[in-house]
Specification:
The complex is a heterodimer of chains A (510) and B (247).
Chain A: H1 2-13, H2 38-41, H3 49-72, H4 76-92, H5 94-107, E1 111-115, H6 118-131, E2 136-139, H7 143-147, H8 150-156, E3 160-163, H9 166-173, H10 190-204, H11 216-233, E4 236-239, E5 243-245, E6 250-255, H12 259-265, E7 269-275, E8 279-280, H13 286-297, E9 305-310, E10 320-326, H14 330-334, H15 350-354, H16 356-361, H17 372-383, H18 388-392, H19 402-406, H20 413-430, H21 435-447, H22 450-467, E11 471-472, H23 480-483, E12 488-489, H24 496-509
Parallel strand pairs in A: 1-10, 2-3, 2-4, 4-7, 5-8, 7-10
Antiparallel strand pairs in A: 5-6, 6-9, 11-12
Chain B: H1 2-14, H2 16-27, H3 72-82, E1 86-90, H4 96-106, E2 111-114, H5 124-128, E3 132-135, H6 142-147, E4 150-154, E5 157-159, E6 164-167, E7 184-190, E8 194-195, H7 198-210, E9 215-218, E10 223-224, E11 232-233, E12 240-246
Parallel strand pairs in B: 1-12, 2-3, 2-4, 4-7, 5-8, 7-12
Antiparallel strand pairs in B: 5-6, 6-9, 10-11
The chains are: A alpha/beta (510), B alpha/beta (247).
Amino acid sequence: MRTNEKSRASATLVTPASAPVRRTPAPPAERMIDAPPFPENVKNYINNEQLRANMRHATHTIRAKRSAVAAELPNWEELRTAAEDIKNHTARHLDYYLEQLEANLIKNGAQVHWASDAAEANRIVIALVQAKGVDEVVKIKSMVTQEIELNEALEAAGIAAWETDLAELIVQLGHDRPSNILVPAIHRNRDEVREIFLREMKLYGKAAPEDLDNDPKNLAAAARLHLREKFLRAKVALSGSNFCVADNGTLVIVESEGNGRMCLTLPETLISVTGIEKLVPTIADLEVVLQLLPRSSTGERMNPYTSMWTGVTPGDGPQEVHVVLVDNGRSKVLADTTGREVLRCIRCAACMHACPIYERVGGHPYGSVYPGPIGSALTPQLRGFNSAIDKSLPFACSLCGACAEVCPVKIPLPDILVYLRHRVVEEKKRGHLGLEQTLIGFFGWVMSKGRRFGRFGTMAGLARRVLGKEYLRSLPSLGKRWTASRDLRMPPKSSYRKLWKKRARRKGGA
Amino acid sequence: MMGRQEVLDKVRAALVDVVAQEQDSALAPALGRGRSIAPHPAMTESIGASQAPAQDTPPQWEYGQPTAVHDVAELFIDRVVDYKATVERAATEAEIPALVARMLASAGALTCALPAGLDAAWIADGAAAGVQMRWDDPPLSKEELNTISAVVTAASSGMAETGTIVLDHRADQGRRILSLLPDTHVCVIRADQIVTDVPEAMARQEASLRAGLPITWISGPSATSDIELSRVEGVHGPRNLYVIVVG
């Protein structure tokens, strides 16, 4: 975990005297999109035994919990199909439901904003926070705000965004990045958490008790104390949303700790940033997704707290409510009739917990806020196939299919990854041809005519006779990659076509 | 408002295939190309019929159905206990005051917040035992609430299968903040308010949501599994949850 060490070192070097002073802990300096391709990037993680042990424990625990509670419901498969249908229907009429949601939000006293991309969304949120004359906000864990890098945009505008989910707090104070969309600090164990709390909490608010041990109960209590003063002080809260109900203008957030309820209830102003794919048409549709989500994600029958709110409730909670609808590449995904299936995702993380690759390397090597199978299928489509990491993500998969079996909205992840591999190759073919493309092109030419293929077989057999070997033990240059771990078998002396002809002759002669 | 038009334009451009399919099936329903399954409920109360989504991909789902549960109240109690909450069953309303007092005492509560519309009889024993009762009328400030140790509320409904209490924050349940800042929450729910599972409960809540009321689902005390996935009860929300099931 090279990146963390580096940023941790630089963070401790910054003293109040050597401005510019940040309001919040600095995350790793490297941009995620600049990550090296997945096969190279994993090398930084795969040999970290602590990480592998943490990940193995976490994924196996949560996998077992998920399958136990999913098996409790006799109609689990019907629920999955219903959710698939609901989300497909919504996507097919997204323009209609977006306008309906907007109308109902406005009717209920909320203000609606639209952002085409990350920069626009960040501009809108910063302007809203500045209009309230405050320089800090409390925040509920939200994937879309990570995707648009809202915290760093706020920091640049002099606004401190405090993460209030326990795991997000661990990540933020650890100068780190989340490695899971559900349990962002899944890669950290209790000793690491204790160390981070003791070192960092005092720099940004109420210090951790000096005698803090590594008992998760006490670590959670330290977080409760550290954040309570921030909750009581904050005038503005930021959230995402799990579901937006178009026909009533209701937003839904599911959570465990109560930090969400704090943010949704205490501040005077609430700004909810939400991806445009989060919609469901009706209140009734919630009965389907609210059964699937907790059982698929944390493996509980129900998460401790679910909050629903419809614009402004006079005398209860924030009296100024904003909703920012963010596209940021989603309409591009929607335009791809195969790739659009990923927009059904309800961000439960079941696919990553089921994934044998994710289990061994964690979320960081994916270079994306959405790691694991869904990340590999969603991120390159959202960002475009321009960076080295995005071109490699569809290949970060053994196509074992475990993810598709657990997905509560039945996204056929392996099929989509195969399709995206095709897109990556098509994209490559449009540029200059590499060795791989040239070779494949050559074989395509050879095989396009029967006689040509026959002659090629004869020539390959000739090469075998000339070299006089059945196996090649080592090839030069690029070929070495193949022969480093296996021998290359030479083509047979005689081709199948020749054998067939011989046989026909023999039969004819007999 | 530039963003709005841009986003909607891009979404519409992305859905040309859907529009084309729909025109196809609209032209040739007799040929059996259009699907004739019941429409999605959203379409029955659309804003304008002319722009209502066509009847495609309706969910194969019957909404609002109860599940097979033998004893709804008993299952509810089992599931709530499973979340490490304390549950007591009262045969009649007359038993509520004594139970409330006992729970407040066991939580060591010295002060208790009360929703403006709570039945005053429920807290008579607790008040007599010396717990200082604070009515949320006029509304208590968040600083005051942060120093109050407990809250007593009614409930709007319950779900047995998931052990979930639903608050729609009417006068007997109080503002959302009331059941959030105090560390102990005593919740009184009538057995006839408990339904089987999420679908039945969702149908019951629809009227509250349509009326603009906020809704909170509570399934056990505040919890986290963020450190090594080991469950810790009690983070930001009330760390002690007491439930009284009446009837």
